[in-house]
User: Fold this.
Amino acid sequence: MPVSTSSSELIYQSLKSTGVRIMSALPETWLVHLIRFAEADPEMTLVRLAKEEEGVGISTGAHLSGVKSAMLMQNHGFLAAVNGIVSCAQLYRIPLLMIISLRGDFGEKDPWQTEGGLVTEELLRALRIPSARLEHPSHVKERIQKGMTLAYASNRPVALLLCRDLMWEEA
Amino acid sequence: MKRLDALRAIYPELEKSIVVTIMGAVAAELQSIGHRPNFFYLQHAMGLASSLGLGIALARPDARVIVIDGDGSVLMNLGGLSTLARYRPRNLIHVIFDNESLLSVGGFPTATSTGTDLAGVAAASGVPRTATVRDLDDFTREFNAAVAANDLATLVAKVDATGPAVFLTDLGLLENRFQFQRALREWPRPASA
Assistant:
């Protein structure tokens, strides 16, 4: 599977270095290594979700308890989580770090991913959620750290978009 | 059974626990009995109270967490029951007040009014302790048994579809949120092993 192991490792270690100790996730192809790293790490609590919106509740509970967390999801999972983001994380000013795989962008071969790709960044803007694209390994550590810093300073959600050039290595 | 009476019956345990409730009548009635800094009322985001409770229970396995949910909310996040059961936080008790209606928006009947059995859904999802109760004595007994059992439990309490005249209280949402976070920070931790 041509999902980049090295980029996944870099993302995982960057998240961990910001203090993340709970990750909630729903699997998708680009996230498989990240989820396996979380599963294998005794210092990380991985919460496998039935639906992404649950992750907003879990991260809210973790934050109110003093534990840093992150959500790992596909952009379609972000779409499925919008009410929770608005009426829990934003209403209650929760620093919610969302790691979103940006499917349906340039280079996408799966037809079913393309509509979600068209609306993801527009929707983030409409929700006033700051986001940064991670397109190259050189972006990863710094943008994750700065994203977490902004999430905690603003007490609001922040999104980091995992892009094809970072995550996918053509065979 | 009236929800207010059920809340009164378990209030002494709630005072000693980290409590997450849903919006509407539950939040207003619990506040009418007495707000505590360790009570958080999720005044929107229907369905996520149990997920929020799971997040707390995982972050603070040393503390008892009580989630007070409702049939309308649980029906919006049935998958959350399967996630709860999967991680089986032994420090979490999930109370569902089932009035078979969406009371705060006009009392429209929910699917529990036509036979959906939430304790059955919880049990089939893997929650180890479940019960449905219809009167105050049974509720109090089952709740106390769940506390004593130290295991994840879902307790469905069938209650009357009645509530307070108004749902708005003078506790601001963010006031509640920051007060609750501070209460959790100061919540006693066991002496480290």
In short: The first strand of chain B starts at residue 18 and ends at 21. Strands of chain B lie at 18-21, 39-41, 65-70, 92-98, 101-102, 108-109, 129-133, 153-158. The interface with chain A takes residues 20, 40, 42-45, 47-60, 77, 79-80, 82-83, 86-87, 173-174, 177, 180-181, 184-185 of chain B (CB under 8 Å).
